[in-house]
Every structure is written in structure tokens, then in C-alpha cells.
Amino acid sequence: MRQESFKTDQAAITVFLDGPLWNGQPTATLGGFRSRNARSGQEVLSKAIGFARQQGVEQLIGPMEGDSWHSYRFITDTDGSPPFLMEPNNQAHELEVFMKAGFRQIGSYFSARVPLTPESTQRPMPSSEFKVEVWDGKDPEGMFGQVYDLSVNAFAENPFYKTISRNAFMSMYMPLVPLIRKELVLFARKPDGELTGFLFGIPNYSEAQTPKSVILKTYASMTKGAGRYLWREFHVIAARNGFQTAIHALIHDDNLSALRSIAEGARVFRRYGLFGLRIAQ
User: Cα–Cα 20 to 30 A to 25, which of 110, 116, 158, 278?
Assistant: First the structure.
């Protein structure tokens, strides 16, 4: 991945030149943005935009670490509750720096939480189209390999999607293996055994040594009804394993997941945005 970083004593930013498409056109992305104050942030952002212009870039999106598989989005609104595991984080002035430079919001997302009550233990009706199973904890490399294969197909039409290599995917997720509880990784399989959906959950280790909340990190489905079943089964398993709250993490406002979160009675506690800028050449 072609990239260039700009740093001072008080700020840093990286330009990733091979970003995803935005409105069907190539972009570069801006990631790794950190600044102690607005002035230092404006300094490195100006250098990054100038560099992108010199490279012939006409569109920038950010914050994004090269693609949506890695960290992206600014927090735009919050109730002040502590960050959860793997959640994007930023200071308020960093968002303001982007806005003052002309960036405008092009994607909206939220995180919500829902109490896990006795009603959460009601399992959905079974289906003849697929069977849901819990990961057995064996062969994590094989497990994530299956997740990768399904993800590149299931997410291909998502906004700002860009394919990454299997090796890059594995290098991101294999370090998480010691943190995984196998009962929070679910698969949906067709009668012939073909994988048609998955759900990956993880305890919110940012909370405490023994977390009381659990994160629904990501899921995908290629068969109608499998996603809803995985979603519901996750709540059932989490409740029966002593978790008190489920966090529906980083959901796009226009995604079907948003409707499922509402149906579960979840309440939004954080909102996020992705921002774009068209550069005059």
C-alpha cells in the first residue's frame, strides 16, 4: 500500500494513496490522525492535502487507515460512556479540524446497547435452509479463513468497501485469538455444510477483567433469514453466559442491522461519521 506520513511533535497523519471508491471514483484516505490541539492538527492536515494534490488525487476520505477493514470514522456524538474494545476514538477538536478544512460527512454510523434480560433467552424458530452452530474452538486459522472467504463476498457491495488479501486479513484477526470466547463465534451452514453466514462477538475487555457487556462485532449472511437467526442466537448465548448488556457496534445507519438493533430495543449511545473532500487541482 502506497502511503506517506507527516509528523510534528504534536500531531501526525498518514495519506494512503490506494483508497476505496467513493461515488465510483478512486480516492486516497487519511488515517492515523492525532493532534494535541487544533493548530497542530491543521498543520499536518494541510501537508497531507497538499501531498495528495501533488499526487493527482482528486478525492480524500477520512479518517480511515487505508480501508474499512482497519480503523475509520470520527465520533460525532456521545453520551459520555467509556469506549468499548476496538472502538474508534478521537478528540473533539480533531473532527473540527477536518470540518474547517472543507470535509463533509459522507457516512453515518452508530453503536447501541441493549440489556440482556430473561426474554433474551428465547431462541428463534429453526429453519430448514440453514443450521446455526457454535465454533468448537479448534483450528482458529481455519475458522478465520472461512470468515474471510464469506466476508469478501458478503461485504462487496458495502459503501467504501475495498478487498484486502487473505494474509492481511489473517494478520489482523489472528492476534485476537487469545481474547475470543468460542461460544460467541457462530456459523450458519446450509444442509450440505456450505458456510452461508457468521457472527463474531467478543467480551468488552475495556470494561473490566470480567466484563459484563459483550460486543456484537460483525456478522454477515448470504441466505435470507440467517442473519436474523445469528443475531438472535448471539443474544441468547450471551445472556445464558452471564453477560448483562449487548453492544451493537459500529452499524451503518442504512444497514439492515440498524433495524434489527431497534427491534431488540437497543438504545444509541454513540454516533460516528466518515468524511470526504474533493480536491481542486
Answer: 110
Diameter of the chain measured on Cα atoms:
60
Query: What's the pTM value of the predicted model, to 2 decimals?
Result: 0.92
- On the question of pLDDT at 250 being above 90, the answer is yes
- Could you state, in order of their start, the residue ranges of all structural domains in the chain? 3-108+272-278, 117-243
CATH number assigned to the domain with residue range 3-108+272-278, chosen from the 4 options 3.90.180.10, 3.40.50.300, 3.40.630.30, 2.60.120.620: 3.40.630.30
- For residue 88, what pLDDT is reported? 94
Domain 117-243 coded CATH 3.40.630.30: yes
Tally of CA atoms within 13 A in the half-sphere of 233 that contains its CB: 24
How far, CA to CA in Å, does 196 sit from each of 107, 127, 129, 162, 189? 27, 13, 10, 21, 5
Bridge partners of 22, per DSSP, are 25
Q: Using an 8 Å Cβ cutoff, are 196 and 151 in contact? A: no
- Residues 274 and 105: their CA atoms lie apart, in Å, by 6
Residues 54 and 198: their CA atoms lie apart, in Å, by 43
The CA distance from 138 to 44, in Å, is 46
pLDDT score of 264: 84
Helix (H) or strand (E) holding 62: strand 59-62
